[in-house]
Design brief:
single chain, 487 residues, alpha+beta, Phosphorylase Kinase, domain 1, Transferase(Phosphotransferase), domain 1, Immunoglobulin-like, 3 domains, 6-stranded antiparallel β-sheet, 7 helices, disordered C terminus, kinase, ATP-binding, nucleotide-binding, transferase
């Protein structure tokens, strides 16, 4: 079978997910093996699923990172959408854990550091994976790769689908997600903490007998202390405990986790054209000296059916609540200027250059009003500043002075913000399909820490979770195990 006029030849069926069939394929033009995910024929006529897989492909293609699977192409064959991805040599971490029970602590820390590095890249682009678990981590000779962004969403979007359900794996579901609210990077950090606990101990931090018990444990039960691991630095055990905090505000950021586990995640600067540089590949931390040992288990070709449907069917506005993140953009839009107000004193040395709070005030389903509050977290005043950010959707600014928009990219200029001071920009616009929160805020080229609130929506109601207690060995959207073959 061939796709796209014969360019891609489907060689071997590798797995079936909830909405897609994954194939090992061959690119006849470039002469390379690829993974091809084809929307299941029964869903190909559904506009919602077609839109999901298209948005997934576009978003995942932005996440070029050594520990995230590459997306090469998107197309349609006889009306059926498909995504062409990198075919990876390796083995799912879930299979390794099922066979070995646990990993040497050096390997566990290295793998989780690489996963954290991948999440930093996603969070900087305003994307939350929402399904961090062993089945979605592939171990390769080049390091770990995070796969299957099929359940991912934009920071600030509502975490509850139109049917009132949550998407995710209950065994790795952050407790705040059970309350609905806004999509937050802290949920990925919680999943990363569970991943670290599992790889270090060979078990989960609770003993439960059912999915209901699992969800109750996430919300109410304190984790069982990590069993002693010979040689494990105490700070790693403490980090794991912090990642599993019930309160998302008490968890470290993905940047902190990556750096603590040995991944170099120097915060990049954005220039005026504002395309975010790739984060550097993770390197061992000085004080820990982690070094990946050769893994004899990593043999054959296994499809990592990565990047599922990204940010599933976004409705109008971001959901309620707040979401902390270091978001930095692949695109660059921004907003208007307005009154400035003075806040607390300057931020300590080493803090991010600015903080941005994006608050939706009104959303009619086609128009919106929002406030963008920018705080200068640096030790010096900022004069003649320029704020940039990007709209992930089709939003268009309709009212605002001193704002320029080109496609999804926006920029706004202002006069001065004192050290520790803030200014609020009033923004109004319209949109067609969806109104997700903007991403990639930067002040004079320096990445801003971002939070999102939806002040136009009623408080979220408790949602029910959809998924299996722990579908280890199964991907969220690639539930068939990868097959090994020649490479």
């Amino acid at each position: 079978m061939t796709l796209l006029g014969g360019r891609y030849r489907l060689v071997e069926r590798l797995g079936t997910g909830g909405m897609s069939i994954v194939w090992r394929g061959f690119d006849e033009v470039l002469g390379r093996q690829v993974a091809v995910k084809v929307l299941d024929g029964t869903l190909a006529s559904d506009p919602a699923f077609r839109r999901r897989i298209r948005i997934e492909a576009r978003a995942a293609a932005r996440l070029c990172h050594p520990h995230i699977t590459n997306v090469y192409d998107y197309g349609q064959s006889d009306g059926t959408p498909f995504v062409v991805m990198e075919l990876v040599d390796g083995e799912p971490l879930a299979d390794v854990l099922a066979r070995d029970g646990m990993l040497p602590w050096q390997d566990a820390v290295t793998i989780c550091g690489e996963v954290a590095s991948a999440l930093v890249a996603a969070h900087r682009h305003g994307i939350v994976h929402r399904d961090v678990k062993p089945a979605n981590v592939m171990l390769t000779d080049a390091g770990a790769k995070v796969v299957d962004f099929g359940l991912s969403a934009l920071i600030g979007e509502s975490d509850v689908g139109p049917d009132g359900n949550l998407l995710g794996t209950p065994a790795y579901l952050a407790p705040e997600r059970l309350d609905g609210g806004a999509v937050s990077p802290a949920a990925d950090v919680y999943g990363l903490g569970l991943l670290l606990y599992r790889t270090l101990s060979g078990q989960r931090p609770w003993h439960v007998a059912s999915m209901t018990d699992m969800l109750r444990a996430h919300r109410y039960a304190e984790p069982i202390p990590l069993p002693p691991v010979d040689g494990l630095p105490e700070e790693v055990a403490e980090l794991c405990e912090r990642c599993l905090a019930k309160d998302p505000h008490e968890r470290p950021t993905s940047v902190e986790v990556a750096e603590a586990l040995g991944a170099d995640t120097v915060r990049p600067r954005l220039d005026d054209t504002a395309v975010l540089p790739l984060p550097p590949a993770p390197v061992p931390a000085e004080g820990v000296g982690f070094r990946r040992r050769a893994q004899a288990a990593l043999v054959g070709v296994v499809l990592m059916a990565a990047t599922g449907l990204l940010w599933a069917n976004a409705a109008h506005s971001p959901g309620g609540g707040t979401a902390g993140s270091g978001a930095a953009a692949a695109a660059t839009p921004t907003t208007p200027s307005a009154a400035a107000s003075v806040s607390a004193g300057p931020a300590p040395a080493g803090a991010v250059a600015c903080r941005v709070r994006y608050a939706v005030r009104q959303d009619s389903g086609s128009t919106f009003r929002a406030d963008v509050t920018v705080t200068n977290a640096g030790p010096k005043p900022v004069a003649g500043w320029r704020l940039t950010f990007a709209f992930p959707g089709d939003q268009e600014v309709t009212e605002s002075a001193r704002v320029a928009q080109a496609g999804q990219r926006v920029s706004a200029r202002g006069d001065a913000i004192p050290a520790g001071g803030s200014t609020t920009l009033a923004l109004a616009g319209r949109y067609g399909e969806a109104n997700p929160a903007p991403v990639g805020f930067a002040l004079d080229g320096m990445t801003c820490e971002m939070s999102v609130a939806d002040l136009s929506a009623p408080p979220p109601t408790t949602a029910s979770a959809v998924g299996e207690p722990d579908n280890a060995g199964k991907g969220g959207d690639n539930k068939g195990k990868g097959k090994k073959g020649k490479g």
